[in-house]
Design a protein that fits this description.
By secondary structure, the protein is an alpha/beta fold. Helices cover 34% and strands 26% of the residues. It has one domain: P-loop containing nucleotide triphosphate hydrolases (Rossmann fold, 3-Layer(aba) Sandwich). Helix 4 crosses helix 5 and helix 4 runs parallel beside helix 6. The site of adenosine-5'-triphosphate (ATP) has 12 residues, from strand 2 and helix 2.
Length: 226
């Protein structure tokens, strides 16, 4: 019994978390959320509702003022700097503002998280090619990422987040600049990752990507879950 309880524990557990940005912007107010291992969760809500803030708390880019955040069984508030780095190796993040390296090529941007993990060059080449193919970006692989359109940069950010098949994928407005066709490619990529075990949280305004799916959707309103 104890073992199965451990197995079924939430992969992400947010308990009564408040985040205030200096001096007095309350981005999240006493929110709680559990995400199971292997779940795909859509996080919705109007602009300014606190979606990106919640994702930043999950990857320890920001710290909460109050409350508990557990990711992969670790209480993030108790982690030392090197332990945060270890935890972040299990997390892939596609940032809302991409955070790509503009002078590096598309290939180099996507390969970077695998290089940080000292993966063999052949494995890196194969995985990056597979991802760029699946997002129809192979023909741009040797271009500096800064020369790409926003939709192309968004795909680079998504491929980079997915490249290590992270245990937790956080995607912040991943289809904001994409047309219907490319949105489908991105969602297929997420489903493929999810099938191989990744837990996925997607912050989005795009109702088309969760309507008609069986995945859970939660909505933030002014820093609160309704
Ligand atoms: N670094 C910051 N400093 C101060 N205030 C911030 C900061 N980041 C976010 N905020 C504020 O916190 C609130 C929540 O912002 P957040 O970016 O989490 O919203 P969001 O739901 O992701 O919005 P969007 O849909 O526009 O991306 C907003 O009022 C925002 O202005
Ligand atoms: Mg946001």
């Amino acid at each position: 019994m104890t073992e199965s309880t451990t197995e079924n524990r939430a992969f992400v557990d947010v308990v009564k978390v408040t985040k205030v940005y200096s001096p007095d912007i309350v981005a999240l107010q006493n929110i709680s959320l559990s995400v199971d291992r292997g779940e795909i969760l859509f996080l919705t809500g109007m602009s300014g509702a606190g979606k990106s803030t919640l994702l930043k708390l999950l990857c320890c880019m920001e710290r909460p003022n109050k409350g508990l955040i557990e990711v992969a069984g670790r209480d993030t508030g108790k982690l030392k700097k090197n332990e945060i780095q270890e935890l972040r190796q299990q997390i892939g993040i596609a940032y809302q503002d991409f955070k790509i390296l503009p002078r590096h090529t598309v290939f180099q941007n996507v390969a970077m998280p695998m290089e940080v993990m000292y993966k063999p060059a052949r494995e890196i080449r194969d995985r990056v090619s597979e991802l760029l193919d699946s997002l129809q970006m192979s023909h741009k692989k040797d271009l500096p990422a800064g020369k790409l359109s926003r939709g192309e940069q968004q795909r680079v950010a998504i491929a980079r987040a997915a490249v290590n098949r992270p245990a937790l994928l956080l995607a912040d407005e991943p289809t904001g600049n994409l047309d219907h066709e490319v949105t489908k490619m991105v969602m297929n990529l997420f489903l493929d990752l999810n099938n191989s075990g990744s837990t996925i949280i997607i912050a989005t305004h795009d109702t088309s990507i969760y309507e008609g799916t069986s995945h859970r959707m939660v909505k933030l309103e002014h820093g609160l879950f309704n």
